[in-house]
Amino acid sequence: MPAPVPVCVSVSRGPHAMPCSRRLLVRLFVLLTMAGALPVLAQSEAKAQGRSGEETVLIGDLTTVERIGEPALSYQRGRDLAADYIAMAGGVMGNKRIEIVSIDPGGDPSAAARAAEDLRKRGAVLFLGGLLSDTTLAVARAVGDIPVLAADARLPAAVVSDVPNLYQIGPSAEVLGRVLAAQAAETPAVRWGVVARDDYFGRALAHAFWNALRARRPEIELAVEKYVPTLSGDVAPALAAVANSEAEGLLVGLRDGDLVAFVRSARGTGILDRLTVAVPHMGSPEILGALGADLPDGWLTTGYVCCTTGGQPHRAFAEAYQKADPQGRTPTLGALYGYVAMTTAATAIDSAWSEKPARIAEALADLTLSTPLGEMRFAPDTHQANLPLWSGRTGGGQFLDARPVDPLGLGRP
């Protein structure tokens, strides 16, 4: 595997100091609601004011981009949209410029850990990103007490709780499993199969789904269980195992390219036509767009409803993202998480008024943040954010019957 190549995105300081994180949030909100040519202006300001010798705060981003593709690119666009606004709002800690160093570890946890250690030695005060569970966990363990903001790693909450410097913005694997189990319990299917990624996310999702479903329906039986190597697209053995089983329902714990490969490989075979299927986040715009006409109907899923929930801040975020996106698309779930992760990072640093990891971690633990979906905080025991998700089903190329779910309101079965 070739060595990761760093790509830097710098956020320039603006003309006015920010005496507190509250003022930074107010200015970010004002800039966002003005949403016009601001992203373009902010990029120009970043280039003009990115002079050598000015004080910077270094943030690392170790997101696998090339092998994930568009979902990771949309995450970066959301992140950079927030970074542009932070630059226009004046940076952090009295006009210090935030410098983001992005390194693509290619989905390799060892490469991610080595890159994280290098950035730690270079003075990184915080890490963000992480769309893969295993690489995100490797980064968090490699950087000691430096906070890590996982945008959409879908790590199990039990694992996050054991890593004190790790904070999770997107839902945990357990939350997704319980939401899908609640939907699956309402169907007549008794014999359920599992096809999932062979990583922390896939196995924790399957475990949570199974426990929650059996708690509601003790008669449930396991018909087949198959795990797919992460980012491999090697779904043929899993489809064959499902075809040879007597499953009536199927949990599909895949995401991004693996999920698209699974759906397209099954199309026309009839293997999944007779099954009740549950899959996380197929209702997110990135998956709806990737599958297009291949999107199955009637699958139980979670997703993202854009862009009326949350009122004006959400609409303003959507409009600003559309202007920043090369094709004028509405924001994806990854874009939302990228935007929130970057805003959270800057607000925590500004609130701590320090580059010491312990002070930034204290700020994160105490943080209440305004986001396009409303106020966000982290649960003190799990470091899980309370951003809502939606449960529903697929149909006619859309995410239908979407109902909001509070991830912190889901108790264990």
Automatic annotation (TrEMBL):
Keywords in alphabetical order: Amino-acid transport, Signal, Transport
SUPFAM superfamilies: Periplasmic binding protein-like I
Top-level taxon: Bacteria
InterPro entries named in the record: BCAA_transport, Leu-bd, Peripla_BP_I
Pfam family, one: Peripla_BP_6
Keyword Glycoprotein (UniProt): no
BP terms from Gene Ontology: amino acid transport
Family as reported in the entry's similarity comment: Belongs to the leucine-binding protein family.
Domain (Leucine-binding protein) ranges: 73-394
Family matches, as PANTHER family: ABC TRANSPORTER SUBSTRATE-BINDING PROTEIN (PTHR30483:SF37), LEUCINE-SPECIFIC-BINDING PROTEIN (PTHR30483)
Designated name of the protein: ABC transporter substrate-binding protein
Keyword set includes Transmembrane: no
